[in-house]
Design brief:
The chain has twelve helices and 19 strands. The chain is globular and about 65 Å long. The protein is α+β, with helices and mostly antiparallel strands. The structure holds flavin-adenine dinucleotide and 3,4-dihydroxybenzoic acid. Flavin-adenine dinucleotide binds next to helix 1 and helix 8. One of its GO terms (molecular function) is FAD binding.
């Protein structure tokens, strides 16, 4: 089989890229390890920033998000039992974020792909990349027990942190930066009322908590826990008692509770792979970088990476120019490092670090006070949270 762009992975990066290319008349084939049900049902991200909202609208998959998503003009930071509002819209020149679950965006993107008359090859196994430094790179895979080969002009590695694409870049060319945190997140879904009109990021001596939402009757909340803790240690009562203690305010407000319908613990890390390209292979999203979730940036970075990639590939086919493609990694990494910085900053600002001494804890509280009260502080949180622009030129 032959195509112009072979896309590995039907996550946000792969599916948005396919749609961006389709709008320019560029053919692609998507190979996905999991089933359609699996990718459409996995609960992950919740917050889409303005740049991602704009991209989804541009590629014609924004209508359900516009109808059913919850658009927020701000969020709350809480510490010492006080809640402070961050007016994201005011301090970012009118931008917003939307609470629209990742798996709903995936459903919209998969539907759009089929509406275009195009397919996604699900349940593939043993994906390997070949001859990526030639003009005809190849992807080999196994489907229904049969070995297949896809010959491409370009390969887009959109296969997440554990996928094979990044590893196809020779080790002596790749520089990887990995940072672990002494924190994990326990995430729940609960049948309960929304905590507030906007998200609450709460710092507390017992640990960080985040109160988010999905629908008026389904909430998504997170608790900072030991990254190696076992979910079996967390009864529903213990989860609600910690969420309540870490988010209650001095005026007696308490988070509404209800039956917990799902719960799980995950670790967090920061990771950047320099470079994001080699020959005819371009990697995007979690395949190239990951962030701790505190800044809500992972999916959003995936969307902007593939925006850059699609423009580069389009210029190649329409003008014969490789100007953008040659600088793909440089353009993406400039923005990626800024989102990494923001996610690292938010994580350190909001979590309770078991290794901090009382001086460091005092500085952390002063930082929370400063960033939520000074105009400069509010502006820097707002412009990063809603998403920085892509800088095409140096
Ligand atoms: P993925 O979503 O990982 O997709 C990669 C795809 O490639 C998968 O479908 C996978 O099955 C497939 N694949 C892997 N290996 C192979 C192979 N060998 N062959 C074929 N296919 C393969 N981000 C935000 O922006 N905002 C948030 O609010 C936010 N909250 C989050 C909350 C949680 C709890 C978590 C876990 C993440 C959150 N994120 C958030 C991050 C976001 O979910 C990820 O950054 C995003 O999924 C990355 O998209 P991707 O397409 O790069 O990778
Ligand atoms: C959600 C996840 C995040 O990482 C975040 O910072 C805000 C909200 C969510 O899943 O709703």
């Amino acid at each position: 089989m032959k195509t112009q762009v072979g896309i590995i992975g039907a996550g946000p990066a792969g599916l948005i890229l396919a749609q961006l290319l389709q709008l320019q008349g560029i053919d692609s084939v998507i190979l996905e390890r999991k089933s359609r049900n699996n990718i459409e049902g996995t609960v992950k991200a919740g917050i889409l920033e303005q740049t991602t909202i704009d991209i989804l609208r541009e590629i014609g998959v924004g209508s359900r998000m516009d109808r059913e998503g919850h658009f927020h003009n701000g969020n709350y930071f809480q510490f010492n039992g006080q809640r402070r509002h961050i007016d994201l819209k005011k301090y970012s020149g009118g931008k917003q974020v939307v609470v629209y679950p990742q798996h709903e965006a995936i459903i919209d993107l998969v539907n759009a792909r089929y509406e275009n008359g195009k397919d996604i090859i699900f349940d593939v196994e043993d994906v390997t990349l070949h001859e990526i430094d030639t003009n005809q790179p190849k992807i080999r895979y196994c489907k229904n027990g049969l070995d297949e080969e896809l010959v491409c002009d370009f390969i887009a590695g959109c296969d997440g942190f554990h996928g094979p694409s990044r590893h196809a870049i020779p080790e002596n060319i790749r520089k990887e930066h990995l940072h672990f945190y002494p924190f994990g997140w326990l995430g729940i879904l609960s049948d309960s009322a929304p905590a507030a009109d906007e998200l609450i990021y709460s710092n507390h001596d017992q640990g960080f908590a985040l109160l988010s939402t999905r629908t008026p009757t389904l909430q998504r909340h997170y608790l900072q826990v030991d990254p190696y803790d076992d979910i079996a240690n967390w009864s529903d009562d213990r989860i609600w008692s910690e969420l309540t203690a870490r988010t209650k305010t001095n005026d007696g407000w308490q988070v509404p509770d209800g039956p917990i319908t799902s719960k799980g613990i995950f670790q967090m890390r920061s990771f950047v792979c320099e470079t994001m390209q080699y020959g005819r292979l371009f990697i995007a999203g979690d395949a190239a970088h990951t962030v701790p979730p505190t800044g809500a940036k992972g999916l959003n970075l995936a969307a902007t990476d593939v925006k850059v990639m699609s423009r580069g590939i389009t210029e190649y086919y329409q003008k014969g120019s490789t100007y953008i493609l040659d600088r793909y990694s440089e353009i993406c990494l400039r923005r990626v490092w800024k989102a990494e910085r923001f996610s690292y900053f938010m994580t350190r600002l909001l979590h309770t670090n078991p290794n901090y001494d009382s001086f460091e804890r005092g500085v952390q509280l002063a930082e929370l006070d400063y960033y939520t009260s000074s105009e400069a502080g509010l502006r820097t949180i707002a412009e990063n949270y809603v998403g920085l622009p892509i800088e095409w030129e140096k």
